[in-house]
Amino acid sequence: MSSRLDGRRVLVTHAHRYLGPPVVELFRAEGATVLADESELTGPDEPEELVARSGRIDVLVANLAGPPEAMPVTGMMVRPTEFTDEAVRGYIDALVWPLLRIVRATLAQMFERGSGKIVAITSATPERAIPGLSIYSAARGAQNAFLQVVGAEAAPHNVQVNAIGPAHIENNMYYTEDMLADRSVRESFEADIPAGRLGKGHEAAELALALASGASDFLAGQLIPVSGGWTT
Amino acid sequence: MSSRLDGRRVLVTHAHRYLGPPVVELFRAEGATVLADESELTGPDEPEELVARSGRIDVLVANLAGPPEAMPVTGMMVRPTEFTDEAVRGYIDALVWPLLRIVRATLAQMFERGSGKIVAITSATPERAIPGLSIYSAARGAQNAFLQVVGAEAAPHNVQVNAIGPAHIENNMYYTEDMLADRSVRESFEADIPAGRLGKGHEAAELALALASGASDFLAGQLIPVSGGWTT
Amino acid sequence: MSSRLDGRRVLVTHAHRYLGPPVVELFRAEGATVLADESELTGPDEPEELVARSGRIDVLVANLAGPPEAMPVTGMMVRPTEFTDEAVRGYIDALVWPLLRIVRATLAQMFERGSGKIVAITSATPERAIPGLSIYSAARGAQNAFLQVVGAEAAPHNVQVNAIGPAHIENNMYYTEDMLADRSVRESFEADIPAGRLGKGHEAAELALALASGASDFLAGQLIPVSGGWTT
Amino acid sequence: MSSRLDGRRVLVTHAHRYLGPPVVELFRAEGATVLADESELTGPDEPEELVARSGRIDVLVANLAGPPEAMPVTGMMVRPTEFTDEAVRGYIDALVWPLLRIVRATLAQMFERGSGKIVAITSATPERAIPGLSIYSAARGAQNAFLQVVGAEAAPHNVQVNAIGPAHIENNMYYTEDMLADRSVRESFEADIPAGRLGKGHEAAELALALASGASDFLAGQLIPVSGGWTT
């Protein structure tokens, strides 16, 4: 039995959504003590309070998806002349603010200890245009750009901040079970993916595990797309 | 005398700031009718109202910099454990909201006519980490990701949306005259730039002109860094 | 009438192929003296001899395509278990060696004068995988990586070296007239291009013109894809 | 004790050079049967013969560095007006040909079995210009572009082809012991690396291990720089 995270305390946000469930399962199987948090984190003080009550965080998995009312992906599509300010605010509130605030709070304790790892689970969409997703991509682009700089800033403190950028990975936010069960929907996605199939949550979780352990020791601010070759 | 923009109506935002002045000067010299707008565009309805009263816009130069109180670049630097929510909000309000809203409003008339060009002047910083600029980079990253998607969406309407990403270009927002006159400050910048010097505003304006005319006819959602090779 | 290249001496290689014809036409219309060279440039000394007999070269357009016997694109497709050493050698000989040698020879005179511009016409394929084109992409990748470094090296000499990376642009090497006339072939390409159409040669030539004149004054080693948004 | 490669047969090329030694050590510690090959692989048939006599290869680590006579990095530096054809040929022969040939030969058996992993150890230099390294970067650029396409082609066969791109990692090819022991040399490198230090071979080996095991199951043609944030 493997135990790559033995003795590590790991905080996973939005643990019930997106890639939270496979990450929690894999990280526990690898011996981690996982704090699987399911709060929305949209309140201005929520992220800091969560960090404060979590004790020592060796690894933060900043997994964020939302807002729930906009999901799945078919509901997120909008023309560039028709998106509403409310929709924009929804993505900024669900994706940008929680990430910035929880990274800020977690880094404080990691810098103090001189060690720690942050793995953000963002998206590969800012790497390649998907018509209809301009607003979503803007929010994910803010996340990715923020993490690139913070990764450079954190590296001299022996804290590794990196990200994985999923696209075309089965998950409970961007797809519904009906969509995944519909052969024609599935084929329309698969035609675009070099691997010829959608990815599984545990495949992305394995990459997150790599970044949460030794594979990221000399990475800083790296975004790694995980998309079956859809983007590289 | 050159007249590459003869008869074109061009709206330039934040015309008194950042790369506004050299763009206005060059575009006028090329025969354009330039609407040089100097409003902040931070009010929710300001961008739409500006577009409404501008009449036909053949070219939008979405030049945005700010917020003014955070400038110059030395005042923008902050540690990733210490930035404030107010600072984040400042950048989102000055850079992200105005861009999204003015692009949305302008595209509506351009789609109707089946032609038009948008040149956004954003930043190359999301392409390469500058420690201290995590929040600024997040806002610029949101801009760049948004434009990439909108570029793809607008292309079939014969509307070209692209961006230039300045870095290390002399301008009145990120540098003060004192900084530019100080030899040691200048040298600290120049050491990092393959070209061995800071760029001039009119050099970036020439690239903006290219994207505002024939050179962008088959570009869609492209970001072109203009940084003397600092990033490519 | 426009005259953006008045008095400039421009050398265009493979002038009868790929984007040579539209570049020659546009650059002449802009007042340049164009040396339209049609030699293969595969002999080890050919590039240097061409430069030697060309006199002053203000602008080099390093347009290279080939080898002719492998064209069009349907003939270039090969499985990664089946390409031959001969095919590899063909692409290296047609694309890599001529570029390296002619850039080397041209830079010598440009460095001496302290001015000059090189615009390479390579390909966007190294930016996004096209199954079947591994060998072709390797040769184009060598070109792009070489130019990025040379661009940085040349910039302090006031010599601007940059590249455009065409993809999905009509030309006489990668497409045949039959392919372009066949509606289903055309549609299979177009489905992949955000702009919804193939590009025209003169559209790429306009971008080359921008890089051959003021728009590249503060660019160094930049590759600009021109592909209707297929890659950005 | 960990055993992430238990029962896996791994072929490592140039096993005595570059990142070969730390990869061999780590992969053996993880239970792999490692074939540590030390041949130059510059003969046209060498790669295929090596694959033929290696039996089943579950994982190929295509680690290539050279040519030995050009190393270390200080000996590789050359101006863009002065590199020789011999130098170019040296890099193509040492880096490009062996990679193409050994990947071609290995994929044949992996496609037949419907499984396998290839991890190439190339370089991050094509991602960011280092003056003096134009020729070296061209060869590494050819490798990276080739692997991106092959990764897409191999993915539907359940074969994952990916790469790590080291930069600023201690190794026995690009640095000498004297260079690494010289404080001023070391500091000149470190000033450029966000992490503030050179990387260790075993840190890159850990990333190679991730790509040789579960972390790459939904990656295809991905290049991951490992450079302490020097490039991302």
Helix and strand topology:
Four copies of one chain form a homotetramer.
Chain A: E1 9-12, H1 20-29, E2 33-36, H2 46-54, E3 59-63, H3 73-76, H4 85-113, E4 116-121, H5 134-154, E5 159-166, H6 177-181, H7 183-190, H8 201-212, E6 223-226
Parallel strand pairs in A: 1-2, 1-3, 3-4, 4-5, 5-6
Helix pairs in contact in A: 1-8, 2-4, 4-5
What does this protein structure show overall?
The structure is a homotetramer of 232-residue chains. With 232 residues, chain A is of the alpha/beta class. Chain A has a single domain, classed as 3-Layer(aba) Sandwich (Rossmann fold). In chain A, 42% of the residues lie in helices and 13% in strands. In chain A, strand 1 (9-12), helix 1 (20-29) and strand 2 (33-36) form a beta-alpha-beta unit. In chain A, helix 2 packs parallel to helix 4 (85-113). At the A-B interface, helix 4 and helix 5 of A face helix 4 and helix 5 of B.
Question: Could you list some keywords that capture this structure?
Answer:
homotetramer; 232 residues; alpha/beta; Rossmann fold; 6-stranded parallel sheet; 8 helices; 13% strand; globular
Q: N-to-C terminal Cα separation of chain A, in Å?
A: 32 Å
> So what's the oligomer here?
homotetramer
Q: What is the CATH class name of chain A?
A: Alpha Beta
Give the overall silhouette of chain A.
Answer: globular
Enumerate the spans of chain A where pLDDT stays under 50 for 5 or more consecutive residues: none
Q: What's the order of the H and E elements of chain A?
A: EHEHEHHEHEHHHE
Largest interface, chains and sizes = A-B, 45 and 45 residues
* Number of DSSP E strands of chain A: 6
Which percent band covers the strand fraction of chain A?
5-15%
Structural class of chain A: alpha/beta
Helix content of chain A: 40-55%
Largest sheet of chain A: 6 strands, parallel
Q: Please count the helical segments of chain A.
A: 8
User: What's the CATH topology name of chain A?
Assistant: Rossmann fold
